[in-house]
Write a structure and sequence with these properties.
Shape: globular
Number of strands: 12
Mean pLDDT: 75
Largest sheet: 8 strands, mixed
Distance between the termini: 20 Å
Order of helices and strands: EEEEHHEHEHHEHEHHEHEHHHEHHHE
Helix content: 25-40%
Amino acid sequence: MNPVRYEKITAKQVLNPVKTPAMPFEHSINPYRGCQHGCSFCYARAMHAFLGLNGDDTFQTNILMKENAPEALREQLRKAARSRKGLAGIGRVAIGTATDPYQQAEGRAKLTRGCLEALTEYPVPLTITTRSPLILRDLDLLRKLPVYAVNISLNTLNRTTWRNFEPGAPSPAKRLETVRALTDAGIPTGIFMAPMLPYITDGRDELEELIAAAAEHGAQFVMASHLRLSASDVKVWFFETIRRHYPQLVGKYAGLYAASAYAPREYRDPVRRYVDELLERHGLRDMDEEEEAPRPGERAAAGAAASGRSSGKPLEIAWEPPADSPGGACGGCAEAGACAAGDGGFTGPAGDSAGRREFADGSGTARQGAGTPGAAQAGATATGTAAEGETLLPLAPDSPPAQLVFSF
């Protein structure tokens, strides 16, 4: 993987209006463009194309830092406070809608922290979405702010899946620990279980273990959303990841996402019904943010009558367990395909249960394997050269290592 380069840019504004009615916030803040976490399913890869950059490896190796973000935000908030509507006219603000506000660069640049400091002067209700325990550094500010939710993104406890799809993100164990620490500090915190990956992270065992772990670590809610492939840049990079790590699923994914950015309702709705059952069982609130998904009361009538895309016929791509694994969720029917077909194609293990439990209780440790994205030497021994007088950014202990170069 190429060395990671951080470039400073100047932003005219940082508080950006969100026009999509389905979104549960009115403005967003993203101090960075690009994200070193490098999640292969991240829809923000498409945003690099608007800058004339690629949505491939460039997304995670060319990080643009809005060096004036705190100052620009403070000026916008000052003007809003003096307007006729005042700060109330801003509505709800979401930090981290495009790239992670606590990615590795934040450890040194502190742009997100600067934005939070500005928000303590002009408080508005806000939410933060991140995969990183670095957010705990800013507990002193979070306690002063009207935070209505911190969303910790976590879609699997499986170590292999984590490595394959999120090569630069902190481990699932660290994210669960972060949920517990935030909750204990009195910050409303939950799990953003997204994206659920068909045939990989949305099996019954996988979902049950993750939601149980969320409840055990003090999560107050769960937002669940299936994979969305709405831009060609994202789709091409994601399918390359599938081809490399799950070649047997390429055809199934092609069938699911051939006609839409979403998998068909016949596939998604049975999964969502099961998620609802798990949330009720574990006493967790459902903070549904899946744009096309029907609300809980509508899911009983899922199918052609439900809103959104439906093929109007039985789903042709049913899940089939690998030859060397047990059958469906019932424990191994003589005709495994019958269970899959009867539940809209929703069954299937998605990895090592023992490994997932290790991460759930924090006892497991794992490092990025050699030969996979992000598998360069640790930051302290990066092969890239830092600019004169600069210090290479240290990585969190559980973050897969990467090469770092600062170019200002």
